[in-house]
Design brief:
It contains 5 helices and 25 strands. It is α/β, with parallel strands linked by helices. The relative contact order is 0.06. It comes from Brachionus plicatilis.
């Protein structure tokens, strides 16, 4: 009986570690784990479709072919660390819709296409440390809405703008230490985030050891040790102020707009005020950039003074415009204007003498009396 049980156990082990789970005999499978570690591979092999974990560590893989993971819809963890990958092309991981952990550390990655991680909507951890990444496109992580941990330690990154991680609403940890960060105004956001009083401190405190590489005066100094003014940011400046608007009573219920453009570094936030009060009402439509405000179906209560405020941590700038509603209708104004023109056309200036012009000259009036005539 014992011998029979031993035979059954051996058969079970051989089935679990079958060499027929991949198109490469150097890979082995154990239940839902496909392992090709240290197999001397230079390409990603095909494996069983029910795999949950795919381990490709310590091989010689240089490229990820498009569609190679397309059938691995159940995969949760992918280990590609310690290979020779130099570039991640667009849609490199297409098919891995359920992937949660992606290990790419200790490769030679220099370039990452903005759409490389496009379909990884369930990814929670991305390991990119110890590569040769110099630059990241601002949309690189746009679709990683569930990402919690982003590790970029030990790369060659010089600029890391806040826009890179704004889409990462679930981010809990960011590692940027041991890079070549240029501590100009682009890095001010991180300095602010790692201050203990910051509401973002719990997310970015892991980057508290990040240090400057340039400028030379800050070489190897921790970003957290710098002062606010060290980042050489530029205070806001309004370059296009809103224009005054006048409409007649006939134009009530129409659309009125004010535009205000500002520059600064970092880019300032624009806020709108009416007669000293911040505008939030649904009646006012403000563009995403904040530079354009639209007033729908205007009425007499909308008249007043409108101000745009351009704000940043480094100062503010203001500009204003008046919105007036003229009581006279456009028809009345046009009539007066036409009447005035006709009146002026009845006069001719001849040698400092105003001559009333009609079919027959009836009067000659000195120039100094002209304005009296006009008033009358």
């Amino acid at each position: 009986m014992k011998i029979f049980n031993l035979i059954i156990l051996i058969i079970g082990i051989n089935c679990q570690y079958s060499n027929y789970c991949s198109d490469d005999p150097r890979c082995r499978c154990h239940s839902i784990v496909s392992s090709c570690t240290r197999a001397g591979l230079n390409r990603v092999p095909k494996i069983q479709q029910n795999s949950i974990i795919f381990d490709l560590r310590e091989n010689y893989i240089t490229k990820i072919d498009y569609g190679i993971f397309f059938s691995l819809r159940k995969l949760r963890s992918l280990f590609l660390s310690n290979n020779r990958i130099t570039e991640l092309e667009a849609y490199a991981f297409v098919g891995l819709d359920e992937l949660k952990d992606l290990h790419l550390y200790e490769n030679s990655i220099e370039k990452i296409h903005p759409l490389a991680f496009y379909n990884l909507k369930n990814l929670e951890t991305l390991y990119l440390q110890q590569n040769k990444i110099k630059k990241l496109d601002t949309s690189t992580f746009d679709n990683l809405l569930k990402l919690e941990r982003l590790l970029l330690t030990s790369n060659l990154i010089s600029a890391f703008q806040e826009n890179l991680i704004k889409p990462l609403i679930n981010l809990k940890s960011l590692r940027l230490d041991d890079n070549r960060l240029n501590c100009d105004c682009d890095m001010y956001w991180l300095w602010k985030a790692i201050q203990p009083v910051s509401y973002q401190y719990r997310v970015y405190n892991f980057s508290i050891s990040a240090s400057c590489y340039t400028p030379n005066e800050f070489r190897n100094k921790k970003i957290s040790s710098l002062n606010k003014l060290d980042f050489k940011c530029i205070e806001p400046l309004i370059v296009e102020a809103p224009n005054d608007v006048e409409i007649s009573m006939n134009s009530l219920n129409s659309l009125v707009q004010f535009e205000c453009k500002a520059i600064g570094y970092p880019v300032p936030t624009i806020q709108w005020f009416k007669d000293g009060r911040r505008l939030f009402s649904d009646k006012y439509s403000i563009s995403d950039e904040g530079n354009l405000i639209s007033i729908r179906e205007v009425n007499e209560n909308d008249a007043g003074r409108y101000e745009c405020h351009a704000l940043s941590d480094f100062g503010q700038a203001k500009a204003s415009a008046n919105f007036k509603i003229i009581k006279e209708s456009i028809d009345e104004l046009e009539f007066k204007s036409e009447h005035q023109r006709n009146k002026l056309n009845n006069f001719i200036v001849e040698n400092d003498i105003i001559v009333l012009d009609s079919n027959e000259i009836q009067h000659q009036t000195p120039l100094k009396h002209y304005f009296l005539i006009m008033i009358n």
